[in-house]
Amino acid sequence: MTPRIEVVGVDSLMLRLFDQIDEGNMPWMLAATQRVREAFGPALRDLVPSYTTLLVHYDLTTIDDRQARQRITDAFEGLQPTAGASARQHEIPVWYDPSVGPELEPLGKRSGLGATGVIDRHSSHTYQVFALGFAPGFAFMGLVDEILASPRLQTPRKQVPAGSLGIADRQTAIYPLVSPGGWNLIGRSPTRLFDRELDGYSLWQPGDRVRFIPIDRAEFIRLGGDDTPFEVTP
C-alpha cells in the first residue's frame, strides 16, 4: 500500500489510503496508524485516523518535511492489515422509542419496515468505529444497512439530549453530550461515553466494534437513563 501524501500545514501531512468508505479499510488503517506511530516516535505530535485518511502532525523542530516523508515511506513498507480479532467489543444498551427518537416512526414508514423493523435491522449489525470527532466521545460508526440510510435534517436542531442515537446517511452515532445536531434520532442510551477517567476521555477508539442492545424503558431508567421526552420544535 502506497498512500497519497498531501501537505495540510507546515508540520502536517495527510495520508490518503482509500478513495471510498468501507468496513474493510479499518484493519489497514489501524496497522498504518501503529506503524506510523512507531516510525515517528518522539517526533510525532498527533495522529488522527479517519474513514480513508490518516493525519500526521509532527514536531517541526525535530524533523523536516523530507524526513517526515521518508519515515512514512518506511512505515508503509511491507504493511499488513491488523487482525480484526484484536478490536475491542462494546455492547451498548439503547431504548428505541418515539418519545426519545422522533425519527424512529417516520423512518419506519419511509423504509417500509415499521418502527419494529427499524429497531431489528439497526440492532442486528455490528458497527465499526471509523473516527472520533465533532464532540468529545462522539464516534462515527458504520455502515448502516442501506434501507436505513437517511440524509441529515435540513435544519439541525439547536439542542440534542446526551445519549441520543442517530443515523446520518449510512453512519450511526450517539451524542455523548448535549449539543446541536442534525442526525435522525431513533433512540437513547444510558451509557456514559465521555468521562475524564476514561483513556482518551472516550469510551471507544477507532477500530472498536459496537453492537446496540435494545432495552425497555424500565431497564433504561434502572441504568440511569433520562427518559424526558424529546420535544420536537420548528
UniProtKB/TrEMBL annotation:
GO terms for molecular function: 5-oxoprolinase (ATP-hydrolyzing) activity. Keywords: ATP-binding, Hydrolase, Nucleotide-binding. The keyword Nucleotide-binding applies. InterPro entries: CT_C_D, Cyclophilin-like_dom_sf, PxpB. Residues 3-204 form the Carboxyltransferase domain. Its EC number is 3.5.2.9. This is 5-oxoprolinase subunit PxpB. It comes from Stutzerimonas azotifigens.
